[in-house]
């Protein structure tokens, strides 16, 4: 199986290790030629404005948009979720996205005071109990289109009920970082999505 991790900025290494532990030897992607060699892509957490800028300068914005439109499976965590959204609130005016998931996300939504926190999230489709989800200056999803399935919401605390995991067809996004939490269930779920798409 040939999965790439978009390696322009962010926690690329952590996704590569989470995939390796899920028995997939993934590779970093920085150039359009490398993208052409993979059947699926992970967009890491990091800073969506930086990923957007670098995607434009590395000539990856349009090729990734096209692959997504053609059905390539993609998983985005945090900044990666923002990069998959059709509409971004509180983004920089020139910020671009790869599009794909019909949703409105709000950047840094959980508030400036709470830069990072942990909360329980239950994910439909994934058994084994709640995720101990790590959020770092995370977005949340404010609106979803008809074809988007809400897979997970924050269970408790001030942000209870907020949508933090979604899927639309072959596209998966979480506002939290399973790659930092040592819980491989989201990566394994994505690997299974890739297997089924193949
Ligand atoms: N941990 C993260 O990926 C943070 C996302 C970041 N706040 C952004 O807007 O891109």
Keywords:
198 residues; 31% strand; alpha/beta; 9-stranded mixed sheet; globular; binds glutamine; 27% helix; 3-stranded mixed sheet; 12 strands; 6 helices
Number of DSSP helical runs? 6
**Range of strand content:** 25-35%
Order of helices and strands: EHEHEHHEHEEEEEEEEH
Structural class: alpha/beta
For the secondary structure, the number of strands is 12
Q: Tell the overall outline.
A: globular
Report the mean per-residue pLDDT as an integer.
96
Give the cofactors and ligands. Answer: glutamine
GO molecular function: glutaminase activity; pyridoxal 5'-phosphate synthase (glutamine hydrolysing) activity
Binding site for L-glutamine: 46-48, 107, 136-137
Catalytic activity: L-glutamine + H2O = L-glutamate + NH4(+); aldehydo-D-ribose 5-phosphate + D-glyceraldehyde 3-phosphate + L-glutamine = pyridoxal 5'-phosphate + L-glutamate + phosphate + 3 H2O + H(+)
Family: Belongs to the glutaminase PdxT/SNO family.
Describe this structure in words.
The chain has helices spanning 12-21, 32-36, 48-57, 61-69, 79-84, 185-197; strands at residues 3-6, 27-29, 40-43, 74-77, 85-89, 101-106, 116-123, 131-136, 140-144, 149-154, 163-168, 171-174. By secondary structure, the protein is an alpha/beta fold. The strands form 2 sheets. The chain has a 9-stranded mixed β-sheet with strand order 2-1-3-4-12-11-10-7-8. It is built from 6 helices and 12 strands. Glutamine is lined by residues 45-48, 78-79, 82, 107-108, 136-138. This is Pyridoxal 5'-phosphate synthase subunit PdxT.
């Amino acid at each position: 199986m040939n999965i790439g991790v978009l390696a322009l900025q962010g926690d690329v290494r952590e996704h590569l290790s989470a995939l390796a532990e899920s028995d997939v030897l993934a590779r970093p992607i920085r150039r359009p030629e490398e993208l052409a060699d993979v059947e699926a892509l992970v967009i890491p957490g990091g800073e969506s404005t930086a990923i957007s800028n670098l995607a434009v300068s590395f000539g990856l914005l349009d090729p990734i948009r096209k692959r997504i439109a053609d059905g390539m499976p993609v998983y985005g965590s945090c900044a990666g979720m923002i990069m998959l959204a059709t509409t971004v609130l509180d983004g920089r005016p020139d910020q671009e996205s790869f599009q794909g998931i019909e949703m409105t996300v709000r950047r840094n939504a959980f508030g400036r005071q709470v830069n990072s926190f942990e909360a329980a999230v239950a994910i439909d489709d994934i058994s084994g109990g709640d995720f101990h989800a790590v959020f770092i200056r995370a977005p949340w999803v404010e609106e979803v289109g008809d074809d988007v399935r809400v897979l997970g919401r924050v269970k408790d605390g001030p942000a209870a009920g907020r949508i933090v995991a979604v899927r639309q067809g072959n596209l998966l996004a979480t506002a939290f970082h399973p790659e930092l939490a040592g819980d491989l269930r989201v990566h394994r779920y994505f690997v299974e999505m890739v297997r089924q798409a193949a």
